[in-house]
Design a protein that fits this description.
InterPro entries: NAD(P)-bd_dom_sf, SDR_fam, SDR_subfam_1. Pfam families: adh_short_C2 (PF13561). Belongs to the short-chain dehydrogenases/reductases (SDR) family. The protein has helices spanning 17-28, 52-64, 79-93, 115-135, 169-192, 215-221, 230-239, 250-261, 279-282; strands spanning 8-12, 32-37, 69-73, 98-101, 144-148, 198-204, 272-275. The chain is α/β, with parallel strands linked by helices and 285 residues long. Strands 3-2-1-4-5-6-7 form a 7-stranded parallel β-sheet, with helices on both faces. Helix 3 (79-93) packs parallel to helix 4 (115-135) and helix 4 packs parallel to helix 5 (169-192). The radius of gyration is 18 Å and the shape is globular. Residues 156-164 have low confidence and may be disordered.
Length: 285
């Protein structure tokens, strides 16, 4: 398993969920990992974010896979903080080959304050821009940038009010951010093509992580129930997919990320890859 042998990969939002999964799958393919995460809650976001111990566990698991790892607490909204952490890690590892801009929050829910719009947009779009911007000076020809989008960027379900919508200012900020990532990655792919640096986005559907399993999302998918459970919500989750599953596994996204980071995809750039159990085709997109 050496598809990423001796590559250095930066991953934001690496403490748990999709980010941790990416770190472990990429380490298993031979990559050394720079794992970054805020490791703190954001007040407007209704669910708890990762902790110091979560990030430490990601580091431990990467080391157990036999690869080098550097972990750091970083808020992707702070470009100077991000640049300092990355610069130190790159100096230690000797380079940077892959950027995985994965950090994100949802801030879904009708009770989320207006600040939720600001925070969701700043993390989910500005945070990606910051991550790419501080990483670019370290990249060489053959490098790869992979951005985590969302099927919500390509569908209207984050703003709908017909029983499948995810309402509130945070949802609006999330939807705007994820939709803007489509044009951002396409434009950046054109700009960086001459340098042989590739840029692609992966758009997951619902993924079985802590970010999905919160009351506000359960209620959005089962508005007919006062206190829907996980099993209740899974009925609604399944409804949006062509393949009858409620959600995909983080590993399903990681497989796509590994491919886009590897030399197997050396001529793949500017793409919007759906890992969505057919949600886009079911929605007629």
């Amino acid at each position: 398993m050496s598809r990423l042998e001796n590559k250095v990969v930066m991953i934001t939002g690496a403490a748990r969920g999709q980010g941790r999964s990416h770190a472990l799958h990429m380490a298993a393919e031979g990559a050394d990992i720079i794992a970054l995460d805020i490791c703190a809650d954001i007040a407007s976001n209704p669910n708890h974010l990762a902790t110091d111990s979560d990030l430490a566990e990601t580091g431990r698991l990467v080391e157990a896979a036999g690869r080098r790892v550097i972990t750091a607490k970083v808020d992707v909204r702070d470009r100077s903080e991000l640049a300092a952490a990355l610069g130190s890690a790159v100096a230690e590892f000797g380079g940077l080959d892959v950027i995985v801009a994965n950090a994100g929050i949802s801030a879904f829910g009708p009770t989320v304050p207006v600040q939720g719009f600001v925070d969701a947009f700043d993390v989910d779009f500005v945070g990606v821009v910051n991550t790419v911007s501080v990483g670019l000076p370290h990249l060489k020809p053959g490098a790869s940038i992979v951005v985590t989008g969302s099927i919500a960027a390509l569908a209207s379900q984050v703003t709908r009010s017909d029983g499948l919508g995810l309402q509130g200012p945070g949802a609006a900020g999330y939807g705007l951010a994820k939709s803007m990532l489509c044009d951002y990655t396409k434009s950046l792919a054109l700009v960086l093509g001459e340098q042989r640096i590739r840029v692609n986005a992966v758009h997951p559907t619902n993924v079985d992580t802590d970010m999905l399993h919160i009351d506000s999302i359960y209620r959005a998918f089962r508005p007919d129930l006062e206190n829907p459970t996980r099993s209740d919500a899974e009925v609604g989750f399944t409804f949006i997919h062509a393949i009858p599953v409620p959600y995909v596994d983080p590993a399903d996204i990681s497989h796509a990320v590994v491919y886009l980071a590897s030399d197997e995809s050396r001529y793949v750039t500017g793409q919007q890859l759906f890992v969505d159990a057919g949600a886009a085709v079911k929605a007629g997109m």
